[in-house]
Specification:
Distance between the termini: 34 Å
Shape: globular
Order of helices and strands: EHEHEEEHEEE
Amino acid sequence: MIEQLDHACLSSSDIDRSLVFYRDILGMKLEFQMETAGKEFETLFGAPAGFRARVVQFEEGLEISQFISPHGRDLNLKTWDPGAIFLVFKVSKLDEMYSTLSGKGVKFVNPPITLKSPLPSGGSLKIVHLHGPDGERISFMEFIRA
């Protein structure tokens, strides 16, 4: 039986660039990093012999992998394409975060937008969107109680 989502995995074309973005710019906390290879990982991923990947995991529940062998291809998925995902982070003080990250050179798709919450408890949601190093769509969302 499914209990809850444990973490999300994201493929990266350059894990060092992703580390700088997620750890150094966004401030996420690195939990571990490792390199994977071997028969068990070839089986796990359905990969050919010689599979190798670098993996980082953040305390906030995001894992990022750079597949060294075989090397993937850029999909260039748009938000509305099947298979595209958003990384949605619940945050506090969104306006302050938006200002700080903008000052660090982060380019947002939109300024903070407030929407009525669809939750039964009411209130509203303040949301911004941006893109990560590989074009992944990221949302920061703050819940504002009614």
